[in-house]
Write a structure and sequence with these properties.
Number of strands: 2
Strand content: 5-15%
Strand order of the largest sheet: 1-2
Largest sheet: 2 strands, antiparallel
Shape: globular
Distance between the termini: 43 Å
Order of helices and strands: HEEH
Number of helices: 2
Structural class: mainly alpha
Mean pLDDT: 90
Low-confidence stretches: none
Radius of gyration: 18 Å
């Protein structure tokens, strides 16, 4: 998954090597997520459910990029990774929306 610019510094410098090692550990197949435990989509091939080309990604189970312990990392297809991250992404979108509205309120406060 793309790394948000504000989170880039949270990843270790050797993240590309770590990610590659985890994907190789999985044999270039999705390791299956809690939502889709039997998913074994193959990197570069059409996904068996979505038919989109699989790009194998590496997920942090605890959503903490600093924690690169093997047991915290899973090789997942986009479907598994996006489904797993969906609650965190929704929370982040809501938080950024609130922050943007709060900043706008600061600028409008002087006009009242």
């Amino acid at each position: 998954m793309p790394i948000r610019p504000e989170n880039r510094a949270r990843y270790p410098k050797d993240w590309p090597a770590i990610s590659r090692r985890i994907r190789e550990r999985a044999g270039s197949r999705c390791e299956g997520s809690p939502a889709f435990p039997n998913c074994r989509a193959v990197n570069g091939e059409p996904h068996p459910v979505t038919s989109s080309r699989v790009v194998l990604t590496v997920a942090h189970l605890d959503h903490q990029p600093e924690n690169c312990a093997d047991e915290n990392l899973k090789a997942w297809c986009q479907r598994c990774h996006n489904t797993y991250d969906q609650p965190m992404r929704r929370a982040g979108i809501a938080r950024r929306r609130r922050e943007a509205m709060a900043a706008a309120d600061l600028f409008l406060a002087g006009d009242r």
